């Protein structure tokens, strides 16, 4: 049947510029035999096409379904126009193009087309470790300024050869591809060790030989350097740990394919999707560690696995198979990005450096993600995610700089309805991390051309981030830590309704100066009311108690009126501190997890954040997997003066009794998790009776605990709640800046869209 021709105009909103969107649209138009044009206009892509109804419908579907990696369509509108005849399809250059894209693209992984060329001996970019096109390659990490063109990127140092210059203007996949280069021009590989300096193929081959023979290398990537070694060679992994000065934290491993990962880890379809997604994140997968050197996973139940995203990594995977690839830094220092700094490392544990002379402007670690309760969650924001905006349900009247928190620092710039979250910037107590934070804040502000009008920050008076926000000379909006956590969930899910927020973490500054961290907040219209929390108890030792779980457990022992649960004789000192008022009052769920871990003798020191809680969770999983019944424990709830208190002291006392009686530790660990999940459900139900609110938002670092999170979500959903958790920003302190920005926007008088 010969249908009548129609002309239709599509407007495509979202992240659609700088990611190869127009060539993709042109490809689809040709596939569906449509005439017309595509062009960038402001922040959107406009397409006008003429064709048969069926073709127009399939075209629109394909645009949404097959959009290039790195793009994100937030809205597609279409309108009918008077019939217009076109002789073919063309990509139009628009005047807006010179003004630059309003969305800055993140770094993009090697695309399938470039991958094909990489392995094609007839291609002039055969085995080129820097092959890229309009749909792939570094972006944010090499940008100096906007508009995005070669002169304003790290590519300015490389002069295009004649062939590349022709391709740059020839239409197709490398038309205006700012990172264009080939084997003849552009960055070249260099290998350097104490004795030798090699380039190109020789550099690559040498690196492969060193890694094969159990060596440790620094390899330059997109957001910084990696330290790399074979995950099968225990000695190499131990040397890498010495180099990083990292004892326990598991290392991430890069694999050639998802199939390869499947040999070591369970990979569900949603997890495979994540592995292949544009940021190529490190995905936390359950792993027995079998087949790998035991030093890789250390004591973790999960392996951080990821796929190659640069052509160089692709070639390395091909030549070597899996590699440990961990950020090149010492613990707590920012990832190394400058060649001079890496070449200056004088360590017997580093056997060479594989690099190139293209500079990295923006430091970014690899992002970390996982699937929990069927939801894809970001644990650490990094390369490939920044500066993709989170779209908010409000349009802010005034631009906002939100400073975030100190422990897992990340800031947020909010302009209009777009919240630009930074990458993970480390611990602000580290002077280099703080410098890096300031540098990144300035850089992103310049790139986005945002003039700041408001600052938002934590209530904590001594946070570096608070002081930084106050130094900007802007009106400052202070947001309570756990309120920011909950607001971050509402911001990313577009929730403007009232919610019951459950914020569990290690520490956050409370309105009353106490250490909060086991909080139930009823959140309304940019404000909140603290409706329930873990009962207070004094914890002696200050910051030391956050590291030394045994010390923390003593405070619980004293509060529960038990004999010294540690047996190391420190109880008297702690009791004196508690009596003298030197102890801090705490409602922290994180500290309770630490204490229970120490009381059971599971783990007594946090050599990294959350280590004790992770060990306790692992033990609970073991009970669950063995079908062991949970040891019966419960939080007793008490109501007074309109506040609900969850009794953590009595519960800790019962854990001590159980430990003393020699109960199965894994059963107690599981019983404790179950008790916490039940408590959340009971408190939320009580608050629903009081307020009528049926939406629950969960956030805070404690919910990195998957067993707890999944149990809580299941119980709440069964009780009729709509449950939301962080997905685009971390549930830990790395997500608080988004919540602060959202609250500031509402307080500034912004209204829902
Ligand atoms: Zn490509
Ligand atoms: Zn060239």
> Which band does the percent of strand residues land in?
15-25%
Instruction: Tell me the structural class.
Output: alpha/beta
The biggest sheet, with number of strands, parallel, antiparallel or mixed sense and barrel status, is: 11 strands, mixed
Major sheet: arrangement of strands: 7-6-14-8-9-13-10-12-11-15-16
Unique ligands: zinc ion
User: Alpha-carbon distance between the termini?
Assistant: 44 Å
CATH C-level name of the domain at 190-368:
Alpha Beta
- Give the name of the CATH architecture of the domain at 190-368: Alpha-Beta Complex
Query: Measured on Cα atoms, how large is the radius of gyration?
Result: 27 Å
Number of helices: 24
CATH fold label of the domain at 190-368: DHBP synthase
Residue-averaged pLDDT: 93
Helix content: 25-40%
Question: What is the overall silhouette?
Answer: globular
Residue runs with pLDDT of under 50 for 5 or more positions: 96-101
Number of strands: 31
Polypeptide structure, described:
By secondary structure, the chain is an alpha/beta fold. Among the domains are: 5-91, Alpha-Beta Plaits (2-Layer Sandwich); 190-368, DHBP synthase. It is built from 24 helices and 31 strands. Helix 19 (589-599) packs across helix 20 (611-626), helix 20 (611-626) crosses helix 22 and helix 22 (665-691) runs parallel beside helix 23 (706-718). The longest helix is centred in the C-terminal third of the chain and has 27 residues, at 665-691. The two termini are 44 Å apart. The model is unreliable at 96-101 (pLDDT under 50). Bound molecules: zinc ion (ZN) (2 copies). Residues 160-161, 163-164, 181-182, 184-185 line the site of one zinc ion.
């Amino acid at each position: 049947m010969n249908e009548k021709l129609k002309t239709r105009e599509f407007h495509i909103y979202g992240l659609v510029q700088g990611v190869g969107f127009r060539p993709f649209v042109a490809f689809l138009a040709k596939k569906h035999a449509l005439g017309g044009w595509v062009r960038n206009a402001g922040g959107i892509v406009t397409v006008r096409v003429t064709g048969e109804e069926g073709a127009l419908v399939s075209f629109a579907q394909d645009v949404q379904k097959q959009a290039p990696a790195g793009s994100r369509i937030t809205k597609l509108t279409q309108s009918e126009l008077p019939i217009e005849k076109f002789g073919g399809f063309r990509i139009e250059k628009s005047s807006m193009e010179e003004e630059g894209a309003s969305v800055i693209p993140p770094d993009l992984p090697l695309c399938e087309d470039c991958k094909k060329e990489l392995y094609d001996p007839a291609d002039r970019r055969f085995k080129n470790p820097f092959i890229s096109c309009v749909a792939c390659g570094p972006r944010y990490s090499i940008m100096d300024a906007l508009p995005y063109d070669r002169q304003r990127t790290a590519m300015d140092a490389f002069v295009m050869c004649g062939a590349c210059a022709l391709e740059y203007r020839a239409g197709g996949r490398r038309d205006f591809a700012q990172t264009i280069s080939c084997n003849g021009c552009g960055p070249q590989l260099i290998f350097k060790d104490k004795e030798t300096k090699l380039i190109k193929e020789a550099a690559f081959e040498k690196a492969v030989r060193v890694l094969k023979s159990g060596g440790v290398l620094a390899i330059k990537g997109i957001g910084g350097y990696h330290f790399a070694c074979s995950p099968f060679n225990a000695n190499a992994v131990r040397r890498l740990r010495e180099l990083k000065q990292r004892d326990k934290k598991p290392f991430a491993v890069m694999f050639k394919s998802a199939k390869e990962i499947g040999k070591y880890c369970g990979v569900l379809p949603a997890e495979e999707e994540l592995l292949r997604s544009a940021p190529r994140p490190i995905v936390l997968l359950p792993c027995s560690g079998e087949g790998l050197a035991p030093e890789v996973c250390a004591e973790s139940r999960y392996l951080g696995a990821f796929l190659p995203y640069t052509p160089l990594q692709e070639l390395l995977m091909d030549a070597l198979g899996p590699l440990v690839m961990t950020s090149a830094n010492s613990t707590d220092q920012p990832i190394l990005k400058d060649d001079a700094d890496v070449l200056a490392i004088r360590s017997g544990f580093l056997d060479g450096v594989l690099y190139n002379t293209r500079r990295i402007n923006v430091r970014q670690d690899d992002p970390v993600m996982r699937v929990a309760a069927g939801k894809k969650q970001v644990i650490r924001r990094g390369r490939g995610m920044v500066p993709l905006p989170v779209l908010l349900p409000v349009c802010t009247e005034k631009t906002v700089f939100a400073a975030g928190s100190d422990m897992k620092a990340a800031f947020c710039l909010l302009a209009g309805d777009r919240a630009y979250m930074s990458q993970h910037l480390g611990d602000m107590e580290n002077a280099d991390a703080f410098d890096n934070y300031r540098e990144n804040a300035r850089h992103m502000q310049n790139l986005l051309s945002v003039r700041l009008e408001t600052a938002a920050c934590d209530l904590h008076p001594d946070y570096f981030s608070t002081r930084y926000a106050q130094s900007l000379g802007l009106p400052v909006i202070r947001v309570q830590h756990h309120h920011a956590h909950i607001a971050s969930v509402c911001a990313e899910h577009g929730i403007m309704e009232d919610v019951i927020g459950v914020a569990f973490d290690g520490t956050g500054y409370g309105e009353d100066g106490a250490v909060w961290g086991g909080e139930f907040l009823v959140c309304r219209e940019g404000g909140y009311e603290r409706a329930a929390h873990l009962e207070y108890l004094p914890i002696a030792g200050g910051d030391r108690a956050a590291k030394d779980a045994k010390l923390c457990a003593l405070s619980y022992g004293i509060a529960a009126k038990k004999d010294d649960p540690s047996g190391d004789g420190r109880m008297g000192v702690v009791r004196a501190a508690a009596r003298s008022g030197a102890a801090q009052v705490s409602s922290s769920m994180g500290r309770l997890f630490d204490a229970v871990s120490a009381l059971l003798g599971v783990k007594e020191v946090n050599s990294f954040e959350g280590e004790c809680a992770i060990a306790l969770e692992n033990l609970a999983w073991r009970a669950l997997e063995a079908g062991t019944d949970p040891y019966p424990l419960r939080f007793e709830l008490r109501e007074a003066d309109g506040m609900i208190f969850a009794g953590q002291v009595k519960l800790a006392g019962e854990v001590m009794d159980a430990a003393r009686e020699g109960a199965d530790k894994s059963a107690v660990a599981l019983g404790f998790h179950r008790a916490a999940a039940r408590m959340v459900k009971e408190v939320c139900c009580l608050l629903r009776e009081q307020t009528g609110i049926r939406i629950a938002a969960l956030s805070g670092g404690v919910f990195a605990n998957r067993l707890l999170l999944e149990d809580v979500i299941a119980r709440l959903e069964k009780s009729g709640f709509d449950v939301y958790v962080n997905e685009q920003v971390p549930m830990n302190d790395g997500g608080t800046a988004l919540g602060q920005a959202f609250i500031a926007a509402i307080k500034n008088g912004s209204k829902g869209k």
